[in-house]
Amino acid sequence: MIKQVLVGVICGAAVLTVGILIGHFGITKTGSSAPSWVTDVTKDVDESLIDKFLSEVDNIQIQENLRELTKVPHMATTAGDEQTVQFMLKRWQDPETGLDKAWREEYLVYLSFPDPTNPNKVTVVSPSDTVLHQVREKEKNYTSDQNDPEVVQPYAAYSPAGHPKGKLVYANQGKPSDYHLLNQTVDLRGTIAITRYGGAGRGAKAINAAPYGVIGVLVYTDPLDINDGLMSDTSETYPHSWYLPPSGVERGSFNGQYGDMLTPYLAAKEGTYRIPVENITGIPPIPIQPIGFEDAYILICALGGEAAPASWQGAFNCTYNFGGPGFKSTSAFNDSDVKMDIFNQEKIKNSSNVMGVIRGSVEPDRYVIYGNHRDSWVHGAIDPSSGTAVMLELTRVLGRMVKQGKWRPRRSIVFGSWGAEEFGLIGSAEYTEQYFAKLSERTVAYINVDIAVFVFIVKVAAPGLDSTSVYDNWIRYSNRTSPNHGTIPRMGFLTGAGSDYAAFVHYLGITSMDISYTYDRSKTNARIYPAYHTAYDTFNYASEFIDPGFLSHQAIARTAGNVLIRLADSLVLPLNCSDYSESLDDYLNTAVSLYEHKLKAWKISMEPLKHAVASFRSAAAHLDHVIRTSDLAKETPLKVRKINDQLMLLDRAFLDPLAFPDKYAYRHVIWASSSAGKPTFPGLADAFASAESSGHSRDWDKVHFHLSVLSQAIEGAAQTLLDVI
Amino acid sequence: MIKQVLVGVICGAAVLTVGILIGHFGITKTGSSAPSWVTDVTKDVDESLIDKFLSEVDNIQIQENLRELTKVPHMATTAGDEQTVQFMLKRWQDPETGLDKAWREEYLVYLSFPDPTNPNKVTVVSPSDTVLHQVREKEKNYTSDQNDPEVVQPYAAYSPAGHPKGKLVYANQGKPSDYHLLNQTVDLRGTIAITRYGGAGRGAKAINAAPYGVIGVLVYTDPLDINDGLMSDTSETYPHSWYLPPSGVERGSFNGQYGDMLTPYLAAKEGTYRIPVENITGIPPIPIQPIGFEDAYILICALGGEAAPASWQGAFNCTYNFGGPGFKSTSAFNDSDVKMDIFNQEKIKNSSNVMGVIRGSVEPDRYVIYGNHRDSWVHGAIDPSSGTAVMLELTRVLGRMVKQGKWRPRRSIVFGSWGAEEFGLIGSAEYTEQYFAKLSERTVAYINVDIAVFVFIVKVAAPGLDSTSVYDNWIRYSNRTSPNHGTIPRMGFLTGAGSDYAAFVHYLGITSMDISYTYDRSKTNARIYPAYHTAYDTFNYASEFIDPGFLSHQAIARTAGNVLIRLADSLVLPLNCSDYSESLDDYLNTAVSLYEHKLKAWKISMEPLKHAVASFRSAAAHLDHVIRTSDLAKETPLKVRKINDQLMLLDRAFLDPLAFPDKYAYRHVIWASSSAGKPTFPGLADAFASAESSGHSRDWDKVHFHLSVLSQAIEGAAQTLLDVI
């Protein structure tokens, strides 16, 4: 489950300024009568150790990790998943290259599967009940991978079972505005809507449809959105290129919130209270099923009715009509219905996280957490095994240094191989619920590397090992101008729930980073790598088309490991609060220009927010100054710890469990998701959009309320950056 | 506002084991080449400094503090209140004996006052509208104090204004069961109910009445409940004794939640969103007014109708009848109504906290907070000035040591003189809202000393200065048997919101303590000291009857200061998690015996809770063992800090903002208030009582839900006590 594709994303305090901070603090020289721990507690990150780490990260090891991880499909809780659990444990418990400790943690979680003995079917049936067309049930085989009996049939997890039959209509991306427009021309009651991926969340395509009387939804990937228009599997698509073959189908979870849906805010253990299934919200109320564009082509090009607008047209060589509803009278499907037979079953299954740790030497009670999910939809070579292969190479190199006694990080490092992410970030979310207090108190940062490499297009090199560094490459293809630093690499914000960072940043307020190597968007319009969530996301695909030679994987391993070691070993945490302040300034400027005029009319002042952002700016500058002008290696380690606690806990100060009453497990007032689509404070933007749309004074009250929540959180965060007393 | 009277109350980790921990850690001797800070960071509490502190605490200074503080009435936000603000600031900014820094913090809070130009009136009016009796508007003068024009008329803060007129009935304590019983005999529609203090919260007496059609409520203090039955002001009551004169009236806040009611969870600043006044809950829906027992006697003894039950009878020499409704036909009030004319006005006023700090030398980012409210209803000699007089003596002695360069605590000490406590703990609650993140992250403990001394009956002595120590006295009059420690002084639990500790423990999860010197309950039945919230709570009353010579005040100052210094200076925090575990064991045993059988019938297992408590027990024993067997003064200060963080943050681990959806600002799953009246987990007890009463399966679901919340919180807390990784 990856909704955002970013070169490197960091939430909260930026790691960018690593270079500014490191090297500043030497090692205090102490005489023989000083306690032995004095040297340890004042030690800073060792650059030569980082160089050694970078040189030992091996592309071929990553390749072999990936080969092993993708031998069989490993959907959550299947036998293939258990095989990867055992593999991770074996590697992390290896006496030569393993971690200090590794173990599994289990949760009983609510999942959804097709019935293997009764596959989901989509057919075109004539008025006399003759089956005129049957949609392909499994993807076409090109390598032997697609023939593995463990390849799960394409399906929409959490779609209800059901057997709707009705006239077909085309509803573009299934957004509210799409159904609204379609409904002006076609009576949607009793219809089946075909939609394409993109524009709206998966489940939303069904949720948005139901109020219009639509009884079933199909979804497919249009070649325009994924293949730059290419469609032919004899020459254009995989195995001839990285593009999606016509029978390829994107599977996915069709739920709207993250974590186990039966146990909100509670770890899903035996005996845990489970809400009644009928109380689950955010899942499709009507059956929905994904299909390949091979079948979508046949269905859409036969549709009758008016031509859909230009923006609704895809790559097929026909006009996309709305549907009569139903097919053209001139087509073979004249007067026929589309019938869906969905046999999905929900089950409570035992899902495992695999955990491993390297104990910290000086501050074992400070955790740097590094994680990725382990479960895939099919073989999952890119999603998620590219990230897992990278993680295993990281742990091999670091583990060996630890086992050989050459290194032990200052802080503890926790590795997490999460289960059941594809069903809604379940393993990581349950973990944060179970260990809420401990993780909140002690976690310095969370690093997520899920899909490590999206595609090999830009020239890749690792820092120090080639003429083009990751930094240079990054700044060339994606940059921004910072008032403090000039031109610097651009980083996105973790405002969504695209991967396992969600619970860490949104629920726990832990500074988080999501790292991946992505592609030059000027060279393809693919919304994601084309084999995403299909039976073609295999080792062959990864090694032939995504990263032959695995040098991009190596670059990611080096970059992520570099960040990891600096977070674990730096005397002063490489997190910069002035960079945070830049983001708040941008958000404030946008908010003022978008909202202030209208808010004044409702007698709502933005002054408290302006004051809060100004307080934060000045407090952040102050702490920066203290860090820059102190020789902390010569002072009491409790002074360094004090500053590190200020940096570590900064994101926690932005949490308010009551800030988003309608958003499950979103508590961070700066980085929460938003539907308003404005680059500003999410809760303010959403509340303003609601109030503007309804015009109700109680909705303007909600804007005022959220403005107060936000101002108080920012003022409170600023307070934590000032001198402590 | 004091609902609980306790010898000394501590929530969470117990300070009791101070004696066990101190003296264990010596000072590491280091050679001249060790950094200079090595000696500082390993230093433990200095016993000779505590002895010095104890010897310098002066009873006469406390007496003079009290004299100054009680010169004029100082109700919140009045001129008298401002006078005390200036006095506190002057003392805390004194160059010889003041603190490092002192300042004021202001909030715009929602208060309720009578109209000085239009006093509230309660009258008996005949059918022809003749006033037959008028209730006294002000308390009778005995010393000049009661004649001060700033003495506020007795009133019920947050009672609505209104002019109900109706037949009088007697409703005992105004509990739901009282109105229920009364309603079986008397038609309550249109009546005025007279109730006595006790048994139900102040506001609840009106809230419980309204559903029966009662239109107004009077409340008085029965001599049985406060005066051991005595009534005569010519010989028995103040100024002849500590007992309440017949005209004395207990004022009070009649709201049901703490903090400013217009700004829930938000600090009440200019521009802060305020909820509509009509959305306030928990305040009287009908007018209510307190009166003295002098007038209550006249009204109650004239009531007609059946005799009330024995348990409803008070100390008056007449039978307490239900009311016909209304008066006996044989009384002068035959056929007459009681009329209430209430002119209370709500106002948003500027209330100040006065804050002061002593900066910590080694861990300035760890706070020990010591506080008391400053505002009173009238002169407030006991409530709260006895506590403030003690606090000022503490800060004088400590401040002088700091100014003379003789001492600086390891951790920072923050003093708070809270405003507007009497209206609902407002100043302290707003403070915790404004500085939520900073206080949550850094506060080691909160110590509250409100009413320092309730009465001078038991023999008092300070540790080391007399033959009977506070400890010996305490253990003699109030003790319990602990599996770990044998017979020890008994401490209560801070489960309510009786004073300013509420926001610290319930909202922030900060280990808190409420200290006072109270009386031997075998010697009086008074529910509290009799002058409580009346115009008789004066310096004269305090020095004549409560603590002549101020030796009890001195004992409290010594005890509180001793605890404060140990919390601020001990190398390892004097907080004991095994004592916490004893309380959880007791709670569990009670819960199992009360609930397990019935829960099984609903297929709800208590095993997760049992497992959680066992995890906690073993983790607490483990941490205790680590502390006891380590020579922490010889190890890295970061190891001590790690343990101290475990102890400091233990209570935070029990917070769940979603645990009590119906209780405002209660988040601590162990110490929250409970209406079920069982000595066990409060949310479980309340949920069980609701389910048992309704029998609805959705209410049993709520029991199961809370059991999961509770188990997860306890398991999570246990995790924080284990080895950190």
Topology overview:
2 copies of one chain form a homodimer.
Chain A (H helix, E strand, L loop, with lengths): L7 E3 L7 H4 L15 H5 L5 H10 L2 H11 L9 H14 L8 E13 L7 E5 L5 E4 L21 E2 L7 E2 L1 E3 L5 H8 L8 E5 L7 H4 L8 E5 L2 H4 L25 E2 L34 E3 L2 H9 L35 E5 L3 E14 L4 E11 L11 H19 L7 E8 L7 H9 L1 H7 E6 L21 H8 L1 E4 L3 E4 L11 H7 L4 E4 L23 H8 L4 H19 L7 H25 L5 H23 L7 H12 L33 H13 L2 H25 L4
Parallel strand pairs in A: 5-10, 7-8, 8-9, 9-11, 14-15, 14-16, 16-19
Antiparallel strand pairs in A: 1-19, 2-13, 3-4, 3-12, 6-12, 13-15, 17-18
Helix pairs in contact in A: 4-10, 10-16, 17-18, 18-21, 20-21
Would you give an account of this structure?
2 copies of one chain form a homodimer. Chain A has 3 domains: 8-12 and 56-112 and 347-566, 3-Layer(aba) Sandwich (Aminopeptidase); 115-343, Glucose Oxidase, domain 1 (3-Layer(bba) Sandwich); 577-721, Up-down Bundle (Transcription Elongation Factor S-II, Chain A), CATH 1.20.930. The longest helix of chain A has 25 residues, at 577-601. In chain A, helix 4 (59-69) packs across helix 10, helix 10 packs across helix 16 (551-569) and helix 18 (607-629) runs parallel beside helix 21. Chain A contains 21 helices and 19 strands. The first copy, chain A, has 725 residues and is α/β, with parallel strands linked by helices. Chain A starts with 7 loop residues before the first strand and ends with a helix. Chains A and B meet through helix 2, strand 14, helix 12, helix 19 and helix 21 of A and helix 2, strand 14, helix 12, helix 19 and helix 21 of B.
